[in-house]
Automatic annotation (TrEMBL):
Keyword Transmembrane helix in record: no
Record-stated family: In the C-terminal section; belongs to the PRA-PH family. Belongs to the PRA-CH family.
Cofactor binding, note field: Binds 1 Mg(2+) ion per subunit. Binds 1 zinc ion per subunit.
Pathway(s) where this gene product acts: Amino-acid biosynthesis; L-histidine biosynthesis; L-histidine from 5-phospho-alpha-D-ribose 1-diphosphate: step 2/9; Amino-acid biosynthesis; L-histidine biosynthesis; L-histidine from 5-phospho-alpha-D-ribose 1-diphosphate: step 3/9
Any one GO molecular function term: magnesium ion binding
NCBIfam families: PRK00051.1
Keyword NADP among UniProt keywords: no
Protein name: Phosphoribosyl-AMP cyclohydrolase
Signal peptide (from-to): none
Source organism (scientific name): Prauserella shujinwangii
Entry's localization field: Cytoplasm
Superkingdom per UniProt: Bacteria
Gene assigned in the entry: hisI
Keywords, in A-Z order: Amino-acid biosynthesis, Cytoplasm, Histidine biosynthesis, Hydrolase, Magnesium, Metal-binding, Zinc
Cofactor (UniProt): Mg(2+); Zn(2+)
Length: 119
């Protein structure tokens, strides 16, 4: 196993000015959107080689493996790149809540709804 992201993958990515790619994380079995996170090349490489979801924490300015302290892990089943190559779709098997607030997803409480279909 190499220590760097495959150059063929790295060439395809469109990153933010600080070198990040948005990652939309979806539960494999339900297709629930669990969370949105960020990956740099090292996080993506680690995710692809270990199948343990690894992200770049913008607040802590370091890599973090989802669940490394909480136990709420994500086993990666699939990673896709979107048509503009600036977003990744990460399909995972989630153990425990995905949101740091303790909810299943970062989008599933009523106070987070800004617009909903009435009918």
């Amino acid at each position: 196993m190499t220590d760097a992201l495959d150059p063929a993958i790295a060439e395809r990515l469109t990153r933010t000015p600080d070198g990040l790619v948005c990652a939309v994380v979806v539960e494999h079995g339900t297709s629930d959107v669990l969370m949105v996170a960020w990956m740099n090349d090292e996080a993506l490489h680690r995710t692809l080689t270990t199948r343990r979801a690894t992200y770049w924490s913008r607040s802590r300015q370091r890599l973090w493996v989802k669940g490394e302290t909480s136990g709420h892990t994500q086993r990666v089943r699939e990673v896709r790149i979107d048509c503009d190559a600036d977003t990744l779709l990460v399909r995972v098997d989630q153990t425990g809540p995905a949101c740091h607030t303790g909810t299943h997803t970062c989008f599933d409480t009523d106070d987070r709804v800004l617009l909903a279909d009435d009918g």
